[in-house]
């Protein structure tokens, strides 16, 4: 039988989601817990890879197992896993369901604050200047009508194409700072952090709206802004067709 894990984690001390031969990853940590509790090696497949230091309030991963009690296993996993990783639900799904390939959309949130705050270290990016919401909102409108994001991807990325369909891109002013929300059918490696860095240049008048469009059209990472730190980035939602869930 196949199951979806609904996971959240603080990625601060982990080397990303995906297994790394010489470093601790979220995937490896959960696989070890599952293997120890189920008594057999139990690989998991995530909806996507988060980089070193990136967090998740909702990551999805699938695994196969026989004769398990979803609630009991959730309790055991949460007792076993380190405090930075939590399992919120275990869903029974169809045998063909795939956490990565069946995802309809993925959403990320990037948090920023304007006043120095030691309690936000590791979960938010400290900005030194306010952002023009009208400027970044105008730039986000361009994103909704763009598909090729090669210029916002890490170089030497092993992908067949750089096409992404962004369906939401918005900045919100919150108490003491901002949040950037973005939703797409897929994301490239480093794409969200590069987008935020480039949008911050627009929002602080270092880059014009027209220039922002030119940067996207250039398809060259060297022309876009500096990637913002991983610490403010959260994978916040992954959506699937409802008919793959059995409970």
What does this structure look like?
- With 247 residues, the protein is α+β, with helices and mostly antiparallel strands.
- The protein folds into two domains: 2-102, 2-Layer Sandwich (Alpha-Beta Plaits); 106-236, Pseudouridine synthase I, catalytic domain, C-terminal subdomain (Alpha-Beta Plaits, 2-Layer Sandwich), CATH 3.30.70.
- The protein contains five helices and nine strands, in the order E-H-E-E-H-E-E-E-H-E-E-H-H-E.
- The chain has helices at residues 26-38, 70-80, 133-144, 191-203, 209-218; strands at 2-9, 45-46, 55-64, 85-93, 105-113, 125-126, 166-174, 177-184, 233-239.
- Strands 1, 2, 3, 4, 5, 6, 7, 8 and 9 form a nine-stranded mixed β-sheet that branches.
- A hairpin with an 8-residue loop joins strand 2 and strand 3 (55-64).
- The radius of gyration is 19 Å and the shape is globular.
- The model has no long low-confidence stretch (mean pLDDT 96).
């Amino acid at each position: 039988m196949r199951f979806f894990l609904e996971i959240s984690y603080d990625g601060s001390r982990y080397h990303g989601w995906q297994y790394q031969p010489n470093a601790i990853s979220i995937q490896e940590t959960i696989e070890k817990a599952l293997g120890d509790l189920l008594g057999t090696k139990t690989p998991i497949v995530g909806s996507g890879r988060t980089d070193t230091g990136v967090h998740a309030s909702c990551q999805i991963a699938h695994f196969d197992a026989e004769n398990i009690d979803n609630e009991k296993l959730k309790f055991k996993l949460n007792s076993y896993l380190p405090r930075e990783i939590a399992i919120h639900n275990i869903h029974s799904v169809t045998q063909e369901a795939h956490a990565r390939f069946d995802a309809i959309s993925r959403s990320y949130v990037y948090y920023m604050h304007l006043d120095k705050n030691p309690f936000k270290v590791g979960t938010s990016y400290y900005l030194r200047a306010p952002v023009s919401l009208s400027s970044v909102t105008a730039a986000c409108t361009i994103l909704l009508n763009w598909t090729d994001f090669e210029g916002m991807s890490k170089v030497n990325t092993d992908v067949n194409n750089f096409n992404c369909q962004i369906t939401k891109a918005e900045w919100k002013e919150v108490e003491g700072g901002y949040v950037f929300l973005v939703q797409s059918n897929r994301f490239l490696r480093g794409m969200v952090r590069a987008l935020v860095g480039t949008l911050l240049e627009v929002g602080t008048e270092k880059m014009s709206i027209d220039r922002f469009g030119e940067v996207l059209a250039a398809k060259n990472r060297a022309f876009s802004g500096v990637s913002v730190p991983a610490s403010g980035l959260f994978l916040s939602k992954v959506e699937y067709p409802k008919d793959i869930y059995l409970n």
